[in-house]
Amino acid sequence: MTPYIVGVVVPLVVTLILRNSKGEKKRGLPVDVGGEPGNAIRNRRFTYTVQTAWEGISTLAELFEQSCKKYHDKCFLGTRKLISRDVEVTEDGRSFEKLHLGEYEWLTYGKTFEAVCNFASGLAQLGHNKEERVAIFADTREEWFLALQSCFRRNVTVVTIYSSLGEEALCHSLNETEVTTVICGQKELKKLVEISGQLDTVKRVICMDDEIPSAASSTWSITLFADVERLGRENPVDADLPLPADVAVIMYTSGSTGLPKGVMMTHGNILATISAVMTIVPDLKSNDVYLAYLPLAHILELAAENVMAAVGSAIGYGSPLTLTDTSNKIKKGTKGDATALSPTLMTAVPAILDRVRDGVLKKVNSTGGLSKRLFDLAYSRRLSAVNGSWLGAWGLERILWNFLVFKKVRAILGGHIRFLLSGGAPLSGDTQRFINICLGVSIGQGYGLTETCAGGTFSEFDDTSVGRVGAPLPCSFIKLIDWPEGGYLISDTPLPRGEIVIGGPNVTLGYFKNEEKTRESYKVDERGTRWFYTGDIGQFHPDGCLEIIDRKKDIVKLQHGEYVSLGKVEAVLSVSPYVDNIMLHADPFHSYCVALVVASQSTVEDWALKRGIAFTDFADLCEKEETIKEVQTSLVKEAKKARLEKFEIPAKIKLLSTPWTPESGLVTAALKLKRDVIRKAFSEDLARYLSVLL
């Protein structure tokens, strides 16, 4: 029987609550599954794995067409018009680009479908055959989504590539997939020109912007996006729709270790995740407004935007650098994306939420006086309510504090956010509570991977616990298996622990042209269920919710046999207000750790000014002994608060003044550390810091 969910599940507050003998709500239940022995859990409401939420819909192309017909006259895709582009020069001679952006201008669902059909026809008229692959290499924007859906209507596989990818990884991705057409922005076209001699199969480039750079290569035919759409409008071609098993996307990971791998996702894979999310996010409606700014080359954003399209919501495009009124690229006195859009829904990675929290606290602390005392009182009262009981979290006092204190904080993200989805990395408990209280919204923490189309687990809106990632999505079974070498067993007490394995229709086909790695990470059991071995370590709570506690690759055995979990320690230490980013380093030849710490410029400079410490620039300040001592003291304080062992606390730190960005190549587009790259970049410092303590 093909699983099918009729419509959108009603809000969870009116569903029947299953409780155990202690009154604890059961969110996940044990399930008998095939494959390697382990502790397996399913979603409490589904005995099977969900494949589609719409009768007769089995591909993303069918789902998109259905939505465009159903919501024909509703606003769908919104983009802000550029009013002016200015350059501001600071006192120290640095220049920054500042943008003045107008209000959102909208395409309806009907007009969007027309544009997609026209572009799909234009692509065929340019000579692109459906057997050939298209790469989309650009920042998140309206044209990205249009190009994606256009390719789906011609059953063309899309290769997604992060706009921040370095030259070597870019060449590898394009050549390995034998891409013949690249759709990109003007900025990305310049990158392509620089490596044109290294690209083997590219024949044509479609530029999303209004102009083609003068230095563009003559190696390819280069066409404007608008011209391809016009060509298709004048020469329409019938759709060639895909089947569920056809590969929709080859998504290149951002490559935290080595060259990126291309994950092959079918239409059925992605549709399963989208269908499952529909059952978890409360009361998704066509009047919701979604702010899109994360990379569409990341499965989290691609899945989220397809969910929004499925329910008839509006999608307004922005960017991390124009998100709020105080974002780096927003001209002073003009609106950021959130203010202009007033979204009701957003996705975010923890690093972005951490920045929202740090920005608010910095403003509160700098204001001081009665305002700070009132904020601290309100936060303390709300924290007690949230930690005390779910009902207390939503009582009359909450309304009072929201009106008196937190209304201004809410305005940072437009003032109308009702639900936030966080994924891509673990979210700290402190930040989760801060967002719950100050923005007055639930955060749905999700856990999944590119290899599982972002599907894995998802926390329900009424789960106020921190540090967990929820119960299995209805498209997945989650299983823990023993990892004896690391000391994690499903027989552990009080909670079963082990490597997380995900099974279900959302588990992808494997890695493109990499059978060895595919065989290593994917298995199909005797019942036909496909499983992905994540390498993450988790534990199940009694209510069926998962907590991520470690990662196999992040565990280092020290000289005297102690195990250090690099990711766990970094998560603890990153709470320090002095830390913008941190990487712990350890090896088996030493009995202690050291750390590279990217300092938070505003916090460190504020501290220095209060102490009367003279410095020429931020780099100079980070070299000063008293600065390093202050930051290290803060790290030790956080470590003791979290009850870290002495050997887990970095014995020495290197303070860095330059942020780690995707453009620097030191972090991925999802802001995860590229450990190997960072180790190589700072190898001399790390070797010196380890040896000096011998």
**What percent of residues adopt helix (DSSP H or I)?**
25-40%
Give the end-to-end Cα distance, rounded to a whole number of Å: 65 Å
CATH architecture identity of the largest domain:
3-Layer(aba) Sandwich
Strand fraction equals: 15-25%
CATH H level, superfamily name of the largest domain: ANL, N-terminal domain
Write out the strand line-up for the largest beta sheet, numbering strands in chain order: 4-3-13-12-14-15-16-17-18
- Helix- and strand-based class? alpha/beta
For the sheet with most strands, the description reads:
9 strands, mixed
Instruction: Tell me the CATH topology of the largest domain.
Output: Rossmann fold
What's the count of strands? 29
- Cα-atom Rg, whole angstroms? 25 Å
Point out poorly predicted stretches: 1-22, 389-393
Give the count of structural domains: 3
Number of continuous helical runs? 20
Which geometry do the CA atoms define?
globular
Just give the CATH class of the largest domain: Alpha Beta
Subcellular location: Cytoplasm
Catalytic activity: a long-chain fatty acid + ATP + CoA = a long-chain fatty acyl-CoA + AMP + diphosphate
Keywords: ATP-binding, Ligase, Nucleotide-binding
Domain AMP-dependent synthetase/ligase: 98-512
Keywords:
alpha/beta, Rossmann fold, GMP Synthetase, Chain A, domain 3, 9-stranded mixed β-sheet, 33% helix, globular, disordered N terminus
